[in-house]
């Protein structure tokens, strides 16, 4: 049932930008949020706000905001991605709801 899902400690380590150890192998999670934002395919806001059935298969519905271009992100959220990521998670969630990306 849980195969393929991250453990709680792996999620915490990823959020803190620490190394995650899997069976003796260590991978460093990049703490640079700009790189995390830039590494994803970009889609128009209208696609990301659309119904789940029309969503591209590579889009994670919990993090739709990272699939916006920089310009679309700033015009939608009224702040750059780096600033958004510093907000508490509850506030990020509320903002995403208000702009139709949750």
TrEMBL record:
Residues 37-102 form the HP domain. GO terms for biological process: cytoskeleton organization. GO terms for molecular function: actin binding. Transmembrane segments: none annotated. Pfam families: VHP (PF02209). PROSITE patterns: HP. InterPro entries: Villin_headpiece, Villin_headpiece_dom_sf. This is HP domain-containing protein.
């Amino acid at each position: 049932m849980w195969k393929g899902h991250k453990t709680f400690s792996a999620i915490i380590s990823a959020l803190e930008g620490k190394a995650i150890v899997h069976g003796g192998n260590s991978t460093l999670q990049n703490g640079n949020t700009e790189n995390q934002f830039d590494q994803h395919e970009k889609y128009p806001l209208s696609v990301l706000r659309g119904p789940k059935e029309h969503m591209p298969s590579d889009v994670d519905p919990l993090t739709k905001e990272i699939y916006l271009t920089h310009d679309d992100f700033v015009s939608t959220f009224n702040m750059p991605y780096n600033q958004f990521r510093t907000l508490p998670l509850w506030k990020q969630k509320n903002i995403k709801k208000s702009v139709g990306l949750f």
